[in-house]
Structures are given as structure tokens and as C-alpha cells.
Amino acid sequence: MRNKGRGFIKPGLGTLAVVMLLGWSARELTLDWLGDEIAPAKPSHQVLALPAGYQPNQAKAPYPGPHPAFNPLDLSAFSLPVAIGDTGPVDTQLWPLDYPFACATEDSGLGQPLVDNQQGAGTLVTSADGAALGFSQDCQIATRVDYFYLQEGAEQPVPLPPGALPTDAQHDAQGPVIVRVERGSLNRYLYGIAMRVMPQEPINSAKLWNHKVIFAFKGGVGIGKYQGKLRLSDLTEDNLTLLKAGYAILASSGNVTSTHYHLWRGARTAQLVKAQFVARYGEPRWTIGIGGSGGAVQQYIFAEIAPGLLNGLLPQYSYPDMVTQSIWALDCELLEYYFDELGGPRWQVQTERPLVEGLTASNSQGHRFRRMDDWSRWLNFKPSRLPPGATECSASWRGLTPLTNNPRYYHRAPLFSDALAAQSHFSYWHDLGDIYGQDAAGYANRTFDNIGVQYGLEALKEGALSPAEFLHLNAHIGGWKPPAQMQQERFWVLSGDQKLRRLSLWGDHNMQKRPGGLLPLAAFNGPVPAGFEPAPRNQGHPQAMAAAYLGGQVFLGRLTLPTIDLRHYLDPVLNMHHSFASLSVRERLIRQQGNSDNLVIWVAAKPFDPTPQALRAMEQWLESGRRPVSDSCFDGEGKVLASGDTVWDGRWNQQADGACMAIYPAHSSPRNRAGSPLAGDLFKCARVSVQDAMAQGFYGTKEMAPYQSWLEAIFPDGVCDYRQGDVARPSELAMGF
């Protein structure tokens, strides 16, 4: 891609003069002029149409249960292993296939998908001279096996030529380093099996296999409608040390969360991949999951909803799940818009914002979209306004709110024809419509709910926020418009909107704002104005919230497998992979089973990578049945700074900071700063009246009686009482436990 805009400077007075001379046309400056280094690219062949008769936006009821642990995949229904040259099966035991579905076989180096229809549904398939052969709506490919070898001094295997072994082949004690890679399609996604073999070893033989399997999971944020890429390097280069040691590597594009976040579908895809392996080579001694971010989420969820898939977990940069992160992540842009545009001078200092957001901030580190806002304001003859620095919200989560929440925004929309993209709904909620349900217009139900949430409550109690500041924030914070009312994002390059002057970093045109506009801070020290209305908030769909649990999208803490949760300490650099997520996992385990003895938390400074050490420890754990290591923290060279059962104690469990917590302090989320527990799995709070909240000490020592009328006007339905837990959570009996 072109890179003309990378690194351009912030516009100054000279630039403003040029813009004024150019006049109105300057206001139409496009992405092409400033650079499009992250603009979505159009594929060679777009998905043109849906299958005949397919209705993508039908109403669906939320999933009623039971939990996926009690609704297993029937593997006996599939003929495995898939023979070389055949196509793999597709799971339709629970849901019909979802369309449109964009292929990625060519991007994965596997050629065009197989033709499955002549009716124009899916992706066009052509001959070598460009003639149309048909269409592929399900993106299937034939199963194939390729052999690769490692050259002396190389780090990436290359294709093994026919005939005699090349003389430059790298050798070790086991002989030449040769890797067999099986690839094909299972459940419409691309899968791969890689293992080290002897020269000329047939497909059903695995003499150098150590009878241990690594299932490699990958992260990112995706919302479906897409096959996803499986590159050769995902199997070979990234796992070369493990392959040399005799491990078999399994992977699937359906187990990459930048492809989709339908974790039940992902679990069943992973089960098919492992079943293909077992049918060909036999049961492994054990299977260990490894993967970061969304790859860690898959491990935690799959351990609960797909028993037997994994024997041990090595989650890196973990979160407990996806959907409970949305509880607070969808607060991010609401808060950032308030701080940037409504909140006043105090919030122009980024390091003030953690008082409310909980997440880390910096007055010097910026975010990559700042320059776009600078140019947009100059193109509209307005001065730059964003304060220096950034928060974790703006530096790491920006762009994910519309991707997950707005049915009219999808960064992969160029994969589809304009007409098809216009009639489709894209969002995390819609991709899981068979779980969350869809209304009569086909818009998926959402779980996001902020009724009664007192943003910044902890800061108020600590004396860091004045009552007026607290009230001003909560009166203006609002929520997100209903899906049917949302408009295309104005996020410039990511949305495909090339008119930079229309930029909105926050998507504020899709927010529910206060009728009558902004009230000055001083007004909140006086009486409530007649006719006052706060900005409307969001009411989550109650059955959709229950379905999040019933459909296995929430990590419940029902984990008995050996687990070593490891990460670099990235909190100070505004990285979204914050350390308190591991403590959320621990809190759920303790709540569910009374202890977290099967969870070890390791945190290290860069550049030390504790993963090889963790894998060795996991093998010892699985071999002996006893945990061989403890919670620990490491410096950047691998030195153990502290170790033991109390090193991660802290405010989250009402203890003094442990030794590792003191070195690598954990932060929290906006909902935690509103009083919600660190476990983070509380979709909908029970509410009590403002009068009862004051009587029961919700505001600590802060005297709020003079502001009671304001509180009642802002929270007419009451305020959150987090002591009562999640009122949306179904009973254990309803889930099947």
C-alpha cells in the first residue's frame, strides 16, 4: 500500500493559509492525498450475492440453553479423517450456515476455493485465463499435504523438492529437519496440521512425533462473515522450535479471533480439527493450548464449553472472555468524548482520566489517530483541540467500539459488493445472532447496559471528584443509539469514508446525548432546572444477557485444568493487554470453586519471554499431577523478582499489595471505578433508590444530601447496588450445572 501520509506533521499557520487559499475544495481533501496506510484493500474478487432464498436478517429468539458443555458436538456424524484431495465436513448441527461469507484461500497461498454453485452466490472462481468457472459460497478447498525442509542457517522451512534430499538440509540428532504440513477446510475455515517427519515418510506415519500436541490459538477482534487467513508461517516458522522437538502443531483460521468471536462456533471448529488429527494419528498424550489475547480467551472458554479438547492452558496476554470486556469497553468512547469535548479544562490532562476510567494514561504518549483529528479541524478552519497524550481507551481501544457495536460499520466491507454490504448487518452482536437473538428488523440484541451506573463513584468517595464534577459527568455520559438508528462511522480510513473533514474519532453522531445540550459545571451546585433531562442511557436486552451465559460466551470460573497465565507488563505503555485481566480470571475461579489453585500468574518485563519456561512447567504439571511452580514476576532478563501465593494480593481481594503487585501494579476498568467488582462479569446491576443508597453509605463519607435532587434527576430508576450481583445471570440449574 501507499504510504504518502505516514509521518506528516501537525498543520500550522502556514498550512492554514494554504487551506484558506484553496478554498472549499481543500475541505474535500481525501485519504489519497494524506496517505492510506491502513485503508481497507479491495480483493480481486468480491462476494457478489447471497444464496438464493437466504434471508440474513430474520428475527431470532435468544438462545435458551443449556450451556454448551451439555450440548456437545456429535463427532460420530462426520467421516474422518478427510482423505487427501477431499473436502472437510461442515458443522450444521446447531445452526444453519451464515452468509455472506468471504473466502481467504488465495490470501493463504492455497489458490482459489472450489466451485460449489453456478447461481452467482459467493466469490467468483476463474480459470487461468480469467474465464468464469462458477462461484464459491462456502470457500471449501481440497485437503493437501506438502513437505518442507530447513536449510542450514535458515529460520523458515522452504518447499522440499522431489528426489534426493538437498545437500543444504539442516540436521540435528534426529536427522534432517523436514516438516509435513496438511492443510484443508473444516467447518468452512482453513485448518493446518504440522509435524516433523522422516524423509519419504507416508502421510499416516509419524515416527518423530513425541505424542504431544500444541493447539495454536491467535487473537484480534473480528466480527465474522469471513473465512480468515491461515498462513504457512502460522504453522512452521512461528513454531519451529516446537516442531524440532517433536510436537504436532494444530491451527485453524476459525480459531483466530480477528476472524470471528463466535466462541461456541470456534470451539466446535477446534474440536473438528483435533478429531481430524486423532483420526489420522491417534490420541495424543496431551494437548496444550497456547495463544495470546483472543487466543487466551479461546482457551478459557473452550476449557468450559468443549471438555476434553485441551489438557493444559498457556494463555498469554489474557482476558477471561470477549463479551464481558464489552461491558466496560463500550464505555470508553462515551467517556473519551465527554473528556475531550464536554468535561472542561480538568480533563484536558490525560492523567486525570484514570480517576474515572481506571485504565492507564500518559500526558506524553499519543495515539495514532491524533494527527487525523488535527487535519480534520484545520480543514474545517478550526484550531486543534485534542490535549497531548492519551489513555488506554484512546490508544488501544479506539475503533473497536464501532467494529463490535455498529451494524453499518465493517473494516472488511470491501470484501463484498456495495449492494451486498448495504443490505447486510455487521457487528459482533449480529455475528452471534443465533445466541443473542435478532429483532423483527434483523438487528441483533445487545447486552450493553449502563442504567444506574455511577461513573467515577470511587473517585467521588476518595475525594478526587467534587459532587458537581461527578454529577456533570453522569448527566452527560449517555449511551449508544439503537442499532437501527446508527449511521456509518466517520472514522476516515477504517470506515472507507475518504472525507477527512467529517472525521469523528468517537462516533459521537451515534451517541445518545443530553436534550438541550451542555450544562455548565456551575449549574450542578444549584437547583435542578425545570424540565431537566439527563443524556439517555442504554437498557441491555435481558434475554440476550442471559444468553451470553447460556451460550457459553462468558467465562464462569469452572476451570479445573492446569493453567499458567503469562504476560508482559504493558500497563504503562497504554497497551490494552492490561494485567488486571488475569486477576479477573482469578476472582471468578475463587468465587466459583473456592480457590484458584490450578491457576498460576506470571508477569515479566520485556524482553524476557517466559513462554518456553512455562511450557516446560506445564509438561511437569501434566506428567506429575502436581503444580510445580507458583505465581511469580520477572525482570527483563528473566530474574525472578518475587514468587509465592500472595505476590498478587492487592485491593482486588482486600489485602495489602503483594511483592509482585508492588512492582507491577494493576489498574482497573471504568465499571470498577463505578463500584463494580474486578471479576467484571456483571451485565446488569440491581438498583436501589438514591435515598436508600445514601442511607446505606454508597457515597462513603461524602455528604451528598445537598445533591439528592440532582441524583434523583440523573438516576430516576435508581443507582447500581453491586452487592446483589448480576441480575441478568441465569441460575446454575438453567445453565444445566
Write up this protein.
The chain contains 24 helices and 22 strands. Strands 4-3-7-8-10-9-11-12-17-18-19-20 form a 12-stranded mixed beta sheet, with helices on both faces. The radius of gyration is 27 Å and the shape is globular. Residues 1-37 have low confidence and may be disordered.
Number of helices: 24
By DSSP, the count of extended strands is 22
Structural Rg: 27 Å
Low-confidence region ranges: 1-37
Q: What does the main sheet amount to?
A: 12 strands, mixed
Structural class: alpha/beta
Mean pLDDT: 92
User: What shape does the CA trace take?
Assistant: globular
**Residue share in helix:** 25-40%
Instruction: Report the span from N to C terminus.
Output: 52 Å
Taking strands numbered 1, 2, ... along the chain, how are they ordered across the largest sheet? 4-3-7-8-10-9-11-12-17-18-19-20
Strand content: 5-15%
What is the secondary structure topology, with strand pairs?
Layout: H1 13-22, H2 31-34, E1 123-126, E2 132-136, E3 144-149, E4 158-159, E5 171-172, E6 175-176, E7 178-186, E8 189-197, E9 212-216, H3 232-235, H4 240-244, E10 248-252, H5 263-281, E11 286-292, H6 294-305, E12 312-316, H7 323-342, H8 354-357, E13 361-362, H9 370-379, E14 390-391, H10 392-397, H11 400-405, H12 418-423, H13 428-431, H14 433-436, H15 457-462, H16 467-476, E15 479-480, E16 511-512, H17 542-550, E17 563-568, H18 580-593, E18 599-604, H19 611-624, E19 632-634, E20 640-643, H20 659-663, H21 670-673, E21 685-688, H22 690-695, H23 708-714, E22 719-726, H24 732-735
Parallel strand pairs: 9-10, 9-11, 11-12, 12-17, 17-18, 18-19
Antiparallel strand pairs: 1-2, 3-4, 3-7, 5-6, 7-8, 8-10, 13-14, 15-16, 19-20, 21-22
